[in-house]
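Dear support,

I submitted the protein below through the web form. The confirmation email said the job was done, but the results page showed an empty box. After a refresh the structure appeared. I'm attaching both so you can tell me whether what I see now is the final result or a partial one.
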Amino acid sequence: MPEAPLFDRLAWQRARRLACKEAGLCYNCGVRKARPERTCCEHCLLAVHARARRHRERLTQAALTAYGGAVCRCCGEEQTAFLVLDHIGNDGAQQRRSVGDGPFYQHLKRLGWPPGLQVLCSNCNLGKARKGTCPHQEKEEGSDDYQVEGRPN
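What the results page shows now:
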């Protein structure tokens, strides 16, 4: 049987979803009862969330790999949960104004992972944002103590 044109398929999907909604069934599986004031059942909702989580994890890993690997460029932190991308030139606000908020890693992937970003851990990124340099870079030469403004070592 030849494949139906796209608009026929879309019309069929709309009709199926409407029929499921009227019957109080999940629009996704059409079998289970939909959650109150929702269009899908708990089972399908959990599956959609799991699929989205896996997609975000793959995208994050691809972004970290594209910008030097899953390790903080400053302190060497390797736990992916702590790693973020940092704008080397501190022009993140300017970029958000030009392209808008949204899925940042997806946008970078679409652009082919453009230069100007680096991998930092959240602590180094925040330190850089507040002071211009990471606190790890403010260590005195030959000392393990940090230089904290206004406090004696």
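Response: this is the final, complete result; the empty box was a page-load delay. Confidence is low (pLDDT under 50) at residues 145-153.
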